[in-house]
Amino acid sequence: MPREQLRAAAATLRPLTQAEVGSYGSPGRAMFTVDVQGYSTHGQDAPPGIALESTDPAATPRSVRIEVTVDRLDFPCAPATCPADADGLQYREIQDLHGYLIRRGTVNVSVLGGVGVDRAVLRRAALDARPVTDEELLRVLPPVPQRQGPLQRLRDWFG
Q1: pTM, two decimal places
Q2: pLDDT tens digit string along 9-49?
Q3: The sheet that has 107-114: what strands, in order across it?
Q4: How far apart are CA 3 and CA 9, in angstroms?
Q5: Which of 135, 18, 6, 139 shows the shortest CA–CA distance to 65?
Q6: If you write DSSP's letter for every residue of 86-108 in order, what string do you get?
Q7: Any idea of the CA torsion for 140, 24, 123, 103, to the nearest 10 degrees?
Q8: Separation in Å, CA 94 to CA 24, 110, 118
Q9: How far apart are CA 115 and CA 62, in angstroms?
């Protein structure tokens, strides 16, 4: 994916709204997302957040993946260190990921990418982090499972 597309998408990063967080099933947890052309968005459990993966089947998934997570840790870089960068950012390197951490109110927003994601794109994404909208959150949720069996037939009958 061209870096210009990633840079443009990084500008859309924002925190989720409280309604979106409630819809996702994680009340009280702050979440952030970003729109990146050529990437699909889905929720992830560990660490909790939103993950973006390339829709290009030829792309190496980890090398071009971008993760946006939020935590409330006092020392989010521990046990490693995160060198300070301008604009309140801290640069992180974790195994085959790298990116930025920024404090937003009471939460830390972490934007990490694989080795194929340009550092400047990750920096811009962290600076432009925004809450996820209800619409964005609904796109990443799995469909509601269909209930089966006698109890469901009774529910359907009462309608």
Answers
A1: 0.56
A2: 666 766 766 655 555 545 556 677 777 777 777 777 666 77
A3: 39-44, 49-54, 66-71, 107-114, 97-104, 89-94
A4: 10
A5: 6
A6: GGGEEEEEETTEEEEEEEETTEE
A7: 180
A8: 27, 12, 15
A9: 8
